[in-house]
Amino acid sequence: MSAPLYKELFLSLFRESYFKAGLAILAALVVFAVVGPFTTKYGPFDVVGQAYGPPNWQLWLGTDAFGRSVYSQLVYGLGNSLYIALVAGLLATAIGVSIGLIAGYFGGKADVVLNFLTNTILTIPNVVIILLIAIYMPRSWITTTTLGLLIGLFSWPWSARAVRAIAMSIRGREFILVAKLSGETPIEVAFTEVMPQMLAYIFLVFVLQFSGAIVADIGLEALGLLPYKTMTIGFMLFWAVAFSAPSYGAWWWFLPPGLIVMLATTALSMIAMSMDKVFNPRLREE
């Protein structure tokens, strides 16, 4: 895919109203996560008031069951949750694209082995694997980085299958034959000729992996797999449920993090839907 065509595709993407809306929401969440900690003088674990204190001018989102500032938890937790999703999304995309590219372009035994590996990982519930690993992992090792790596390490199979299909459709084109005849090695052809043609789809894969990682992070933390001494959105929801915040009418403890999760996943879904519409030739023709 030539540079002018890529430019046209991305210009078309920015004409999509859903993409612009989703990007604006996601950008607002990122800004809130970056700037938010500077707007509060309390840490996420500081006891600053009575338990289940309602919102007021000093504590904008009240306090939790321990008397800690919910607003402070939200701004610090959002940043950590986005970081976990970013680590997981980048790792899963890198693994999935590499395996899918090699399997789809080279075919033969490489395709058989990598396809078997992909299907094997797909058949095993990744939540179960991560929880089993976490059981035997020292508690202090469960940080935002390790949690992101664990999620990414077992989230790549579907993206590998998608990239494999695209690579198989590209490998027979004329410019690939020209590259081979010019003396490029198979690895060079795969990563310098084939992969650039899939750049738009790789962006789409990352957005989907990032969105899935946010949901996976919340789910794992809701099951009790919590980063060591680190606040996250999932951590907030876990403790809000554990201490029956709805029963006490403490809507300010569980509603804001739930709204953040809804906004993040909706924004990423809008971005992914727009990217699929622009990058998918069949949808562009409709």
UniProtKB/TrEMBL annotation:
Alphabetic keyword roster: Membrane, Transmembrane, Transmembrane helix, Transport
Domain (ABC transmembrane type-1): residue spans on this chain: 78-272
Membrane topology: Multi-pass membrane protein
Keyword Membrane found: yes
GO cellular component: plasma membrane
Places the protein is found: Cell membrane; Membrane
One Pfam family cited in the UniProt record for this chain: BPD_transp_1
GO BP terms in the entry: transmembrane transport
Family note: Belongs to the binding-protein-dependent transport system permease family.
Protein name (database record): Binding-protein-dependent transport systems inner membrane component
Organism (species): Thermoproteus uzoniensis (strain 768-20)
